[in-house]
Amino acid sequence: MTKRISRRRFLKYAGMGTAGAIMGIAGCAAPTQAPEPTAAPAAAAAPTAAAAPTTAPAAAAAGEPKIVRIRLYSDIQNLDPANRTSNNDEVVMDALYSRLVTYSPGSYELMNDLAEKIEQSDDGKTITFKIREGVQWHKGYGEVTTEDVKFSYERIANPENKAAYADDWKTLDRVEVIDKYNGKIILKDAFAPLWKTTLPIGSGAVICKKYIDEVGVEKAQLSPIGSGPYYLADWVQKQQVTLKRNPDYYGDAPYYDELHFMPMDDDKACEVALEAGEIDFGRVAIGSIPRYEGNSDVSLVRKPSLRYRWIGMNVENPKLADINVRQAIRYGLDVQGIVQA
Fold first, then answer.
1. Contact 303, 47 (CB under 8 A)
2. Bridging pattern class, strands 115-120 and 172-177
């Protein structure tokens, strides 16, 4: 039988961290102490609208894992916090990694995650933190320490690494290691977005220094380990990403034993799969919103987004070096039509 479940609980059980389009506002105040976490983080906000059945997925038979199937709008490409490429990567990463702080389930209120205590100085340039003791990395890589926090943040800020998200840590001077569990984030200048779009999002993820040193960045990009509520069990390209519940997770155990992420490029294909019971949660087309608003079998959640798309030209490519070629491409695009659409 199925059991009716609220969306808030459904998303909490999925155990994924918030990864929506959240914009930092200059001058916003950072918390001096984030609240204590109460549950696994909530799922990511979809950029258009998301739909899920109003009842939970059918209960697993005795001895079988409890599984939730979630649509991704394309396959994963890079699960390295420094070089993630899309929201699909972030949604999966959110279940794998821990951060010092994260967003509370179903809201944008900050709460402690890996940090037991965290506090910002009055001038905004120093964040003092203590991480939880005994937090374990997936697959036996030992305990999470302050050295891992230092490695995670400084590698993104280091210009030599040319990280895609270097701007998230552009004011970072260094991370000081006080001892195994205590440290300080030292900024060159106060940085308001730190508490909105850096620490609680992808660039705030803490990765395992020992693992990266052992296998290298390239392998870790698509075979990562973290300390979050789930670990990466399997990935079949363009078919399924399988995460399994981390038995050593330090927080409340998420409800589902497994998360199955199903790449589907087309919104309509997602809707067919949703209505056929092949997936349990997914983003639907904007034009389908009226149809789902009147469907009592589906719970529709609107999440307007500031996300945008852009088209650029690689001027370093020899084929595009000639400005006349670039202008010809530009003239061939109906920009006004794109804007109207």
1. yes
2. unpaired
Q: Give the pLDDT of the chain (341 residues) as one tens digit per residue.
A: 333 333 333 333 333 333 322 222 222 334 444 444 333 333 333 335 677 776 666 556 677 899 999 999 999 999 999 999 988 999 999 999 999 999 998 888 999 999 999 999 999 999 999 999 999 999 999 999 999 999 999 999 999 999 999 999 999 999 999 999 999 999 999 998 999 999 999 999 999 999 999 999 999 999 999 999 999 999 999 999 999 999 999 999 999 999 999 999 999 999 999 989 999 999 888 889 898 888 888 889 887 777 677 778 998 899 999 999 999 999 999 988 988 88
The count of C-alpha atoms lying within 13 angstroms of the C-alpha of 94, restricted to the half-sphere facing its C-beta, is: 31
**How far apart (Å, rounded) are the C-alpha atoms in residues 80 and 163?**
10
The amino acid present at 48, given as its one-letter code, is: T
**pTM of the entire structure?**
0.76
For residues 283 and 46, what is the distance between their CA atoms, to the nearest angstrom?
A: 6
87: left (phi over 0), alpha (psi -120 to 50) or beta: alpha
